[in-house]
Design goal:
The complex is a heterodimer of chains A (107) and B (345). Chain A has a four-stranded mixed β-sheet with strand order 3-2-5-4. In chain A, strands 1-6-7 form a three-stranded mixed β-sheet. Chain A is an alpha/beta fold. Chain A contains two helices and nine strands. With 345 residues, chain B is of the alpha+beta class. Chain B has two domains: 1-82 and 129-191, ATPase, nucleotide binding domain (Nucleotidyltransferase, domain 5, 2-Layer Sandwich), CATH 3.30.420; 196-345, ATPase, nucleotide binding domain (Nucleotidyltransferase, domain 5), CATH 3.30.420. In chain B, the strands form five sheets. In chain B, strands 1, 2, 3, 4, 11 and 12 form a six-stranded mixed β-sheet that branches. A four-stranded mixed β-sheet of chain B has the order 15-14-13-18. A three-stranded antiparallel β-sheet of chain B has the order 6-5-7. Chain B starts with 20 loop residues before the first strand and ends in a 7-residue tail after the last strand. Classes of the chains: A alpha/beta (107), B alpha+beta (345).
């Protein structure tokens, strides 16, 4: 399983898709940038694209493009609450460093 | 790591791109503005590197509005046009204020509203709070390099609807969007991560510059409920400064301190008190108007003895709050200490 989601994250993704009025699933991508190299991006997806790897975790459809795949392989997506802040958090065994500001990671 | 949200296709924010929002502590004596930099709370400083903004506004002759330390420095020289502690008046009507509790000549603005006459006109507490908020907003925008989306402002748990609405009005007047108002003790409890703890009763002991507030909170299923509040609106760090001033004067009782000396002496006393948070004793010195530089060594033990009765005064509201909440002291899971004055040893 390249990318997995926790049950809490799956519930949140389904809720977000419902609130938005539909969608195929969640796209997980990695953008290059930030002080430490790479940063995650989460987007709603209407349909898989040709270069995507498409799979399912906890009943949610996930899409990862070929370029991002090696960087997120083995990653788990969780939904957490930190103080008054709520959001998705990645647990990525590939990430060897996080930048000081916590926005990007390196492998 | 910063927490992520799901974006529409093609619209995921690039890393480090933020919607700029801040949290504001609009205090009676001092105010602060802070933001989250990728999950880490950071208090923003002004161009001199100072984070605290004294909640003082001065209306100058040339029409300039001076806020903060510079305004406080003018309080002795021009008290009628320098307003501090407007939070004591915000959202309250003339009937609420007992005569003599506030050092300003209050003027009625009709319908229970009031203001303080200054050379720039009669200023309502909302006007003054707006001037403070505007200063904090400008500091934030300069520090974060962009316009603010909004602010979360904390208010005392005992603030009623009128006081909360007045705070929102002040923010609007300052051009700030209020994302929400948050109760001060709840904000403190969350800041210490208490909301992830098990259910329980927590006391928040908030000793600020001019006011002491105690709140009893119950945490249940991740939500805080305020069970009781109490406090002493005329007790704060400033009173501890006064204790040090009295002690210093008593070291050389023959000299008569003038009003102008008083400001310098107060500053020296505050500085000595703050030093004692890290040192066991401090050499306090103050230049007197007769040219003599008076010196005395203040130790923690002497300070604690002199301040003992003030600390005792904080226990009474704490007991009252517990009684109002129907609880005993041993039912409290933990105490959160808030406010600069709680740094005293």
């Amino acid at each position: 399983m390249p990318v997995s989601v926790t049950p809490k994250a799956a519930r949140q993704i389904r809720k977000a898709l419902d609130q938005r009025g539909g969608g195929y699933g969640l796209r997980v991508a990695v953008k290059t940038s930030g002080c430490s190299g790479y940063a995650y991006a989460l987007e709603f997806a209407e349909a898989p694209a040709p270069e995507d790897l498409s799979f399912e975790s906890e009943g949610v459809h996930l899409l990862v493009d070929a370029k991002s795949l090696p960087l997120v392989d083995g990653t788990q997506l969780d939904w957490v609450r930190e103080g008054l802040n709520e959001g998705f958090k990645f647990n990525n065994p590939n990430a060897t460093a996080n930048c000081g500001c916590g926005e990007s990671f390196a492998v | 790591m910063a927490l992520l949200q799901i974006a529409e296709p093609g619209r995921a924010a690039a890393p480090h791109q933020h919607r700029l929002a801040v949290g504001i502590d609009l205090g009676t004596t001092n105010s602060l503005v802070a933001t989250l930099r990728s999950g880490v709370p950071t208090v923003l400083a002004d161009e001199r590197g100072h984070t605290l903004l004294p909640s003082v506004v001065h209306y100058a002759e040339d029409g300039e509005i001076i806020v903060g330390e510079a305004a406080r420095a003018l309080a002795i020289r021009d008290p009628q046009n320098t307003i501090a502690s407007a939070k004591r008046l915000i959202g309250r009507s003339t009937d609420d204020i007992a005569p003599g509790t506030v050092p300003y000549a209050l003027q009625s603005l009709g319908a229970g509203a009031m203001g303080v006459p200054t050379r720039a006109g009669v200023k309502s507490p909302v006007d003054i709070a707006a001037d403070l908020l505007r200063s904090l907003a400008m500091r934030a925008q300069a520090s974060m390099g962009g316009p603010l989306v909004g602010a979360v402002i904390t208010v005392p748990a005992y603030f009623d609807d009128a006081q909360r609405q007045a705070t929102k009005d002040a923010a609007q007047r300052a051009g700030l969007t209020v994302l929400r108002l948050l109760n001060e003790p709840t904000a403190a409890a969350v800041a210490y991560g208490l909301e992830t703890a098990s259910e329980g009763i927590y006391a928040v002991y908030d000793l600020g510059g001019g006011t002491f507030d105690v709140s009893i909170l119950r945490l249940a299923r991740g939500v805080f409920e305020v069970l009781a509040t109490n406090g002493d609106a005329m007790l704060g760090g400033d009173d501890f400064d006064a204790v040090v001033v009295r002690w210093f004067r008593s070291q050389q009782p023959d000299f008569e301190w003038s009003a102008l000396d008083a400001a310098a002496l107060n500053a020296a006393a505050r500085s000595a008190k703050e030093s004692l948070s890290v040192e066991h004793d401090v050499l306090m010195s103050c230049e007197r108007s007769d040219g003599v530089c008076q010196r005395a060594r203040l130790t923690r033990r002497v300070f604690e003895e002199e301040a003992r009765s003030l600390v005792q005064r904080t226990i009474v509201p704490l007991r009252r709050a517990l009684r109002d909440a129907g609880l005993k002291a041993d039912e409290i899971e933990g105490i959160v200490m808030v406010g600069g004055a709680t740094r005293m040893p």
